[in-house]
Each structure stands twice: as C-alpha cells, then as structure tokens.
Amino acid sequence: MEKQMAFTMMLTRGVITAQEKNTAMEAAKLMDENNIGAVAILKDEKLVGIVSERDIVRRVVATGKDPQKTIVAEFMTKNVTTANFEDGLDNIYKMLCTVKFRHLPIMQNGKLVGIASQRDLLYGLKPKDIK
C-alpha cells in the first residue's frame, strides 16, 4: 500500500492504493487513516480494481465474511470505469453526476493519477454550464 502522486486538478489529496492480496480489514483501515471512501487496487502499477467503503459493507460484512480473512481480489470492482485527465473538470463532473458509483479513477497516459469523488466535486468544482 502506498500513496501515489497528488492529483493536480485538486480532485483528491492523493491516490491511496492497495493490492489484491490485502484484506478487507487492511483496506478499511487505510480508508479510515486517510479519511477517504475508496482505494484503487493496483497490480504492477496497472489499475485492476477499486474498493469502496460500501463494497466492504455490502460484499463482506453483510454477507458474513470475515474482513480479516477476505482478500480484496474476492470482492473488488474489477471492471472499473475511468476518466482521462484530459477530459477536463466539466466532463468529469457530468460523468460523476450520471453514474451509479461515487469514485472515479482518473488516468493520464495509461497511469492512475487521481480519484475524483462525488464529494470532491460537490465541495469545490462546478462547471460553468450548471446553475
């Protein structure tokens, strides 16, 4: 687990990552320590999944699985929708307003550079064409 470079569009305070072999408990502690709602799951610097607080509650705890034994690979979202850094704030904002998830990984040149959350956008980002 490591903290990646800060996302320069101020969508996050940095990207917090974990690996597929980490447990649900480790992912939850990482989110708690960093006051975030999701962690990106990387394998060899490639985005392979994402885990949110909601995933841990619904896919681990609510199903009776042991968070200390259940590894991230067993319950992470694998088909991750992403946006490109070049899409710009307005498009990222619009995308997060229309999807069913709250965290959107941001890629640049094939690398993860940030995660935009609905909360980030709510607190500080508003496109010109939305009143």
Structural notes for this entry:
- With 131 residues, the protein is an alpha/beta fold.
- The chain has helices spanning 24-34, 53-61, 88-98, 118-124; strands at 2-3, 16-18, 38-43, 46-52, 83-84, 103-108, 111-117.
- It has a four-stranded mixed sheet with strand order 1-2-3-4. It has a three-stranded mixed sheet with strand order 5-6-7.
- β6 (103-108) and β7 (111-117) form a beta hairpin.
- The protein starts with a strand and ends in a 7-residue tail after the last helix.
- 30% of the residues are buried.
Protein traits:
3-stranded mixed sheet, 4-stranded mixed sheet, 29% helix, 25% strand, 131 residues, alpha/beta
Write the layout of secondary structure elements.
Blueprint: E1 2-3, E2 16-18, H1 24-34, E3 38-43, E4 46-52, H2 53-61, E5 83-84, H3 88-98, E6 103-108, E7 111-117, H4 118-124
Report the end-to-end length measured between terminal Cα atoms. 40 Å
The averaged pLDDT comes out at 82
Total number of helices: 4
Estimated structural class: alpha/beta
Strand order of the largest sheet: 1-2-3-4
Our Rg estimate from Cα atoms comes to 15 Å
In short:
The chain has about 130 residues and is α/β, with parallel strands linked by helices. The protein has helices spanning about 25-35, 55-60, 90-100, 120-125; strands spanning about 1-5, 15-20, 40-45, 45-50, 85, 105-110, 110-115.
